[in-house]
Amino acid sequence: MAHDHDHADHDHDHDHSHPASELSPMELRVRALESVLVEKGYVDPAALDALIETYETKVGPHNGARVVARAWVDPAFRAHLMADATAAMRELGIGGRGGEHMVVVANTPEEHNLVVCTLCSCYPWPVLGLPPVWYKSPPYRSRAVIEPRAVLAEFGVTLPADQRIRVWDSTAELRYMVLPMRPAGTEGLDEAALAALVTRDAMIGTGLPRTPERNA
Ligand code: FE
Prior knowledge:
The chain is 44% helix and 10% strand.
């Protein structure tokens, strides 16, 4: 392989000051992998930093929480969201890779929605950020379909016995987000305060929004 890599690229300002002994095995592996990729010229460290920065600060569950809060206060937005989630989210400036074809499923007193990817780990990145480890785990992926009520109990969620659970299987093409029900006692809250009640798990369906009391 005659790749003439410009070694001036190595003059980047990553923080390499942590002694290796302070790092977990996973961190060591990631660092080793990054070094090899940069060394071989496959990735530009600045591009890697930009990517990480994007997923740490710009893309994340706070985006989904904004969508949910808007839907709670604005019936027209909610209708648009249910009809064409991708377009409605774009109105709020939310979209991109992993969110090209979004579908929002709304919880009701009769039906609770739960999202899984049984095949791998498809996840709506633009609204929820990077998936939690459990979402990608084989037990969650199989049991969410077979025994959703037991899985929810393990997440601390006990639903009324007469509330059905509907499980949605995400794919690379189609990704789901749950619109939880607006908690009681939130009539006086503005959109920002409402968004603060919306957890990542509430938008996957493995959790419920916080109530104002619990949030305080
Ligand atoms: Fe997947």
